[in-house]
Amino acid sequence: MKFQGKVAVITGGSSGIGKAVAIELVKRGANVVISGRREQALVEAAKEMDPTGAHVAYVAGDISDPQIAERLIGEALSRFGRIDTLVNSAGIFIGKSFTDFTEEDFESILSINVVGFFQVTQRALTEMLKAGSGHIVNITASGGAEQSLKVMPAVLTALTKGGLNAATKSLAIEYADKGIRVNAVAPGVIKTPMHSVETHDFLAKLHPLGRMGEVQDIVDAIVYLESAQFVTGEILHVDGGQNAGQW
Q1: Is the pLDDT confidence value at 26 over 90?
Q2: How far apart are CA 184 and CA 171, in angstroms?
Q3: pLDDT confidence band for 195 (50 / 70 / 90)
Q4: Among 131, 142, 154, which residue's Cα sits nearest to residue 82?
Q5: Three-state SS at 186
Q6: How distant is the alpha carbon of residue 191 from its chain centre?
C-alpha cells in the first residue's frame, strides 16, 4: 500500500516498534512526526528515516505533559498541514509481583501508558474531526494484558494496556460515523532494546509458536490496518498464539 503524502504522528518513535513503523511509512511516501523523551535519539532516528529532513519531524519530551502533547500535534500541523494517522507506540513494561510495585512504578506506567495516550489522542482526534477522517492505532499488549502469565506477573500492564484495548473499542464506536477508525495491535514479546539478549530464550517459550516476535511483524500489522478501510474496533493479536489460550 502506498502512503504518499499521508501524515502520521508516532509516539515512542525513537526506538523499537515506533521507530520501525516510522521508517516503513516514510519508505512508502508518508510524512511522519515522531516523539520520544531523548532528543539525541530522536535526532539520530530522524536522520536514519530521511537524511534530507523533508519528511520527518520530531518533538522531544514527556507526552503526558499537556504542553508536549500540544507541541507534537502542532508540529504535525505546522510542518505537514494535517494528521491522517496516529500510532500510539510509547509504552513501558515493568514485570513484578503486585505487592512489590512501588508508587514510582505505578506513576511511571500510568503516565506513559495511559496519560500520554490521553493527551495525544484527544488532540489528534480533534484535528481528525475537522478533516472528517483519520485512523488511530494503539500498541497495547497480549500476554500480561489479556492472557496473564504465572511466570511473568504484570498487573500494571493488565491495568494500563488492557485498558487501552477497551478504550480502542469504545473510541471506535464513538467515532465510526465521523470517518475515524480506531484499532489496536496487541503484541506478544517483541525483540526490541527493551529485552536484553540473555532473556530471549526464556521469552521465546512464552509463545505457543516458540519464538519471540520481530518488529517487522508489528509493522506489517499496522500497514494492514492502515489499508483495511472496513476494519475498526479491532484488537489485532500479533502474539505467536498467546491470546488463543493456555498452552
Answers
A1: yes
A2: 11
A3: confident
A4: 131
A5: strand
A6: 15
